[in-house]
Amino acid sequence: MTRLLSVFIDAWEQLRLQRVRVLMSLIGVTLAVAALTASLALGNIMAKVQEDTSIRHAGPEATYSLTASGPGPQPASEDLVADLREAADRYGITYATPVISFDPVVPQHPGYVSGYAVDPAFFPMHARTIEDGRALEPQDAERLAPVGVISRGMADALGIQSVAEHPTLQVGDSRVAVVGIVANQWQDDASIYVLPESYFSHFEAATAEEGEMGGGAYTELKIWIPADADPDALAKRVASDIAAGHEGLRVSADRIDAGAYADFGPDPAVITTIVLASVSVAILALGALSLINIAVVTVRYRIREFGIRRAFGASQRRIFVGVMMESVVGTFIAGLVGVGIVAVVYRSPWAQSMFGTAGIAGLPPFPVEAAVAGVVTSIVTGVIAGMIPAVIAVRSKVIDAIRF
Amino acid sequence: MSLVRLEDVTRQIVLRDAPPLQILKGISIEIEAGDRVSIVGRSGSGKSTLLNILGLVDSPSTGRMSFDDRPVQLMRAKDRDRLRGSSVGFIFQQFNLIDGLTATENVAMPLTYSGDSTFWRRHDLAREMLHRVGLGHRLDSPVSTLSGGEQQRVAIARSLVRSPRLILADEPTGALDIDTGESVMRLLDETATEIGAALVVITHDQAVAQRARSRYQLDAGVLTPATAAAQAAS
């Protein structure tokens, strides 16, 4: 143990002794590790954001969208919602929701507001986080006045701090009690979510009137197939059951989560990560070359020192490991600094605003995988870059080195 | 029991475009614990090669060598390195201190390779040793700022810090003036006596050589006792 620790301490003392040389030679490695970590982190974040976006808009894995079409008149949304709920009960599907998109009129809000009539299952299916209050509940349908959940962006725009203040909102001709605030899907997201029952009794008529002028509602049915079922077969059975109640109606079931695109070639986020990481590895290789260059020159100047150390008991192996550890400890520190720079930049308000501009609300935590990859790469670089000077150091003859 | 024994040792170097160079011829010498030995010889007579063999830095081409009655030729390189580190202290003519390190760090260096608890106390032991050689006031001075005499004292402290049983000094006063050389030799004698180490000094200086109880002359690779050499010369 003492021997092992003494190697590290020796290497650290050497680095301290030659700090200017070390600093200069490690700048390239630091920047390269920072670039590599940033590219891996970016790829990781892109994949995560893509997944999150997919979940927010489609739902988790094995999510199906059921679309009704046919030559005859379209059935009323209310009937479709009832059919969906009945089918979900029949097949033991816990997560099923209609998503009726409509354009609510909210006089208090200065901009455009999106309205959605959804079942409570919508929130877990789309990984929507309730930041304050609660999500919609089935019992809300029994209340006389409609209740709604609004997005954080809308709450901010209306000056609503917390649902504890029991805020209400004028939507069309009705007063909606706000019971929850949900995280934004994008920056300045202005959305309101109500139960289908509230929509049918309070907002459908106004939307229909508007529809005659080009607006109107759009109804989509979504189901989340349980993991133990055959997703395609079950989704088709649900679609077929809904269609059976309406003459001439066809209901198609399309898988809409990321799994539906699994056969369409590699993920673009993976390609981007590979390209960025390749460029970073090339930079790292150049950094390592300059490190080797400086280390080789320095080692030649230190031949006498190695001879002296050998004379006082250092074995060849100890000299080899010692010289290599100088490189490894140096690049390890450079790696930590590089990863640290990326982590600090990632958490900076500047980066938050950049990602926010790109439509990413709420950055995921800094990817640990990228940080670990950065540090491990720096250590590997240190081992490779330290190998050549270490071999030169060991090959020097003690007798020549300490010739007096 | 002898500390180091050489029997009929030779050392030759194979040259690419010339016949092999015979540096040492049939060297036999026995050094016991606490001995004082001096070896005098001209430049190129093989003094440094002999010192390197005694110090386990180099190996004989033929002959037998033992350290603590253990045959050196049968030892693995790693064991020789360990034995050298724990039992042999070197003092060089040009001091061979490591530039950039302080006096304390230079003296502590051999303890870095001890592999035992002295590693953790290396700086304390180094400071203690520097006090003993009269350099308590230069502990943290970079060695490049010390005078020649002070640097040689640091080198002596470094050679003694692991309490070796054999101290090998190659021209220890060669780079010093007469007075400083005298005080360095006195210090070397005293400290070697304190730790009970054998001291082998290689020198051109007869005055330095005369301090030893056993005196040898090395001439063209052949080692003879100094009295025998004097008789041969007369």
Automatic annotation (TrEMBL), chain A:
Keyword Transmembrane: yes
TM regions (residue ranges): 20-42, 274-299, 319-346, 371-394
Top-level taxon in the UniProt lineage: Bacteria
Membrane topology: Multi-pass membrane protein
Pfam family, one: FtsX
Every MacB-like periplasmic core domain range: 23-239
MF GO annotations: transmembrane transporter activity
Protein localization: Cell membrane
Keywords: Cell membrane, Membrane, Transmembrane, Transmembrane helix
GO cellular component: plasma membrane
Every ABC3 transporter permease C-terminal domain range: 278-395
Cited InterPro entries: ABC3_permease_C (IPR003838), MacB_PCD (IPR025857), Macrolide_Exporter_MacB (IPR050250)
Similarity comment: family membership: Belongs to the ABC-4 integral membrane protein family.
Protein name as catalogued: ABC transporter permease protein
Naturally occurring in which organism (per UniProt): Agrococcus casei LMG 22410
